[in-house]
UniProtKB/TrEMBL annotation, chain A:
<feature type="domain" description="Response regulatory">
    <location>
        <begin position="109"/>
        <end position="251"/>
    </location>
</feature>
<keyword id="KW-0597">Phosphoprotein</keyword>
<keyword id="KW-0902">Two-component regulatory system</keyword>
<feature type="region of interest" description="Disordered">
    <location>
        <begin position="58"/>
        <end position="105"/>
    </location>
</feature>
<feature type="compositionally biased region" description="Basic and acidic residues">
    <location>
        <begin position="92"/>
        <end position="105"/>
    </location>
</feature>
<dbReference type="Pfam" id="PF00072">
    <property type="entry name" value="Response_reg"/>
</dbReference>
<feature type="compositionally biased region" description="Low complexity">
    <location>
        <begin position="68"/>
        <end position="77"/>
    </location>
</feature>
<feature type="modified residue" description="4-aspartylphosphate">
    <location>
        <position position="158"/>
    </location>
</feature>
<dbReference type="InterPro" id="IPR011006">
    <property type="entry name" value="CheY-like_superfamily"/>
</dbReference>
Automatic annotation (TrEMBL), chain B:
<protein>
    <recommendedName>
        <fullName>Histidine-containing phosphotransfer protein</fullName>
    </recommendedName>
</protein>
<dbReference type="InterPro" id="IPR045871">
    <property type="entry name" value="AHP1-5/YPD1"/>
</dbReference>
<comment type="function">
    <text>Functions as a two-component phosphorelay mediators between cytokinin sensor histidine kinases and response regulators (B-type ARRs). Plays an important role in propagating cytokinin signal transduction.</text>
</comment>
<dbReference type="InterPro" id="IPR036641">
    <property type="entry name" value="HPT_dom_sf"/>
</dbReference>
<dbReference type="InterPro" id="IPR008207">
    <property type="entry name" value="Sig_transdc_His_kin_Hpt_dom"/>
</dbReference>
<feature type="modified residue" description="Phosphohistidine">
    <location>
        <position position="74"/>
    </location>
</feature>
<keyword id="KW-0932">Cytokinin signaling pathway</keyword>
<feature type="domain" description="HPt">
    <location>
        <begin position="33"/>
        <end position="128"/>
    </location>
</feature>
<keyword id="KW-0902">Two-component regulatory system</keyword>
Length: 252, 145
C-alpha cells in the first residue's frame, strides 16, 4: 500500500496516523472556499433534484453483486440481534495493538463524505465499533482534495451535499482515475493550486470503491448512483449491519 | 426504577415517537461511550433548533423560496431519520411534498405540526434520559420487546 501524506489539523483532532491509541482517529479535511462557485452547476439546491444537466457519466458498474450493500431488505431492521464475538471491545483492542506493530500503511483508509453532523457522529461511532477509523470530508470538493492527497481504500459518499454533491464528485473522481489528471475537476471549479500542490506521490492504480449513502429518493436512486460511477449504495439510515456488509465486500 | 425506564422507552416506540433506528444507536453504547444516545440526541436537538430557526425566519419573510425551504427540510429529515425520530421525520416528508407542490399554506400548517412533534419528542427524551441516568447504565442497552 501507499504511504499517506500528512493531513492538516483542524478542530483540534489529532491527525498523527502513527498514534494508535485505540481512540477513534478522525481527521477533518479542510476546505475553506477554494472553489469558484460560479463554475459549479449546483444552484440553491445542492441536491441533484434541482435542475441539473449531467454530462454522460462513466456508467461503469464493476460489481452489480454489490446489491448486498443496499441491504435495506436483508438488514437487521427488526431482526434478531447478533453480537459477533470478533466485535467485542476486548478483541478490538487486541486488534488495534497488533496493528501498531504493523506498518501504518496496512490499516485501511476510509473516507466519509457527509455534511450532516448527526450522520457523521453516528457513522463514526458505528465504524469505531467495527474497528475502523475514518477521515471526514464535508462536501465533494473536500473529498476530491482528500483523495488527491491520500490513497483511500474506501469512500462512503453522501449524495446530497452543498458546494459539490456526491454524484458529481464521483464522476470527477472517475475521470481522474481514467485520465490521471484532475482537469475535469478544475473545469468544474475545484481549486487548481490545491490539487497540484498537494498531490499524492504515488497514485493507486486500483479503482477506488465509492459507496453512495442515499436517501433513496427519485433523484438519489440506485440507478443515478451507478450511472455516476458509484460501485454500490447504502440506503439511509446507515446501520451497523449495512456498514459491516460494505466493509466485508470492499475492504480486503 | 429500571422497570420504569424500560416502560417509558417501550411507550415511546409503541406510540411511534421512535423507530428501530433508535435501537441502532443504543447498540453503540458501551463502557467507552455510556451516554452515546443522549449525546447524539443533544446534538440533534441543537442542530434541529437551528434549522427550525432558519425556516421560521424564511417563512416570516413571506417570500416562499421553496428550494431553500426544501433544502433545510432535507437536512432536518436526514438527522431525524438518523436518530429514529419517527413522527418528526413524517412531518418533514409532508413539508417537502408541500414544497414541491408549491403549496405555501400546506407548508405553514405542516411546519406548525412539525414544531409540536419536535418539542414533544425533546421533552419525552429529556425525561427518559434523566430517569435512565438515575436508574443506572445497564437499562438503556436492552431492547424492548
Amino acid at each position: 500500500m501507499l504511504t499517506t501524506s500528512p493531513i492538516k489539523l483542524i478542530n483540534g483532532f489529532v491527525a498523527d496516523p502513527s498514534n494508535n491509541t485505540g481512540q477513534s482517529e478522525i481527521v477533518q479535511v479542510e476546505n475553506g472556499g477554494y472553489v469558484d462557485e460560479t463554475k459549479l452547476e449546483t444552484s440553491s439546491g445542492h441536491c441533484p433534484e434541482s435542475a441539473h444537466q449531467y454530462e454522460n457519466g462513466n456508467g461503469r458498474c464493476f460489481s452489480k453483486e454489490s446489491e448486498s450493500c443496499s441491504s435495506s431488505q436483508a438488514s437487521s431492521e427488526g431482526g434478531t440481534l447478533e453480537m459477533e464475538s470478533e466485535l467485542t471491545v476486548s478483541s478490538q483492542r487486541e486488534e488495534e495493538k497488533a496493528e501498531t506493530n504493523l506498518k501504518e500503511s496496512s490499516k485501511p483508509k476510509i473516507l466519509l463524505v457527509e455534511d450532516n453532523k448527526i450522520n457523521i457522529m453516528v457513522a463514526k461511532s458505528m465504524m469505531k465499533q467495527l474497528g475502523h477509523t475514518m477521515d471526514i470530508a464535508n462536501n465533494g470538493v473536500e473529498a476530491i482534495n482528500a483523495i488527491n492527497r491520500s490513497s483511500y481504500d474506501l469512500v462512503l459518499m453522501d449524495v446530497c451535499m452543498p458546494v459539490l454533491d456526491g454524484l458529481k464528485a464521483t464522476r470527477l473522481i472517475r475521470s481522474y482515475e481514467e485520465s490521471g489528471n484532475w482537469n475535469a475537476a478544475i473545469e468544474a471549479g475545484v481549486d487548481k493550486e490545491i490539487l497540484e500542490n498537494e498531490q499524492v506521490c504515488v497514485r493507486s492504480t486500483n479503482r477506488l470503491p465509492i459507496i453512495a449513502m442515499t436517501a433513496n429518493t427519485l433523484a438519489e436512486s440506485s440507478e443515478e448512483c451507478y450511472a455516476n460511477g458509484m460501485d454500490s449504495f447504502i440506503s439511509k439510515p446507515v446501520t451497523l449491519q449495512k456498514l459491516r456488509e460494505c466493509l466485508q465486500q470492499y475492504l480486503h | 426504577m429500571q422497570r420504569q425506564v424500560a416502560l417509558i422507552k417501550q411507550s415511546l416506540f409503541d406510540q411511534g415517537y421512535l423507530d428501530e433506528q433508535f435501537m441502532e444507536l443504543e447498540e453503540l453504547q458501551d463502557d467507552a461511550n455510556p451516554n452515546f444516545v443522549e449525546e447524539v440526541s443533544a446534538l440533534y436537538f441543537k442542530d434541529s433548533a437551528r434549522l427550525i430557526n432558519n425556516i421560521d425566519q424564511a417563512l416570516e419573510r413571506g417570500s416562499f423560496d421553496f428550494n431553500r425551504l426544501d433544502s433545510y427540510m432535507h437536512q432536518f429529515k436526514g438527522s431525524s431519520t438518523s436518530i429514529g425520530a419517527s413522527k418528526v421525520k413524517a412531518e418533514c416528508t409532508k413539508f417537502r411534498e408541500y414544497c414541491r407542490a408549491g403549496n405555501a399554506e400546506g407548508c405553514l400548517r405542516t411546519f406548525q405540526q412539525l414544531k409540536k412533534e419536535h418539542s414533544t419528542l425533546r421533552k419525552k427524551l429529556e425525561h427518559y434520559f434523566q430517569l435512565a441516568r438515575q436508574a443506572g447504565p445497564k437499562e438503556t442497552a436492552r431492547r424492548p420487546k
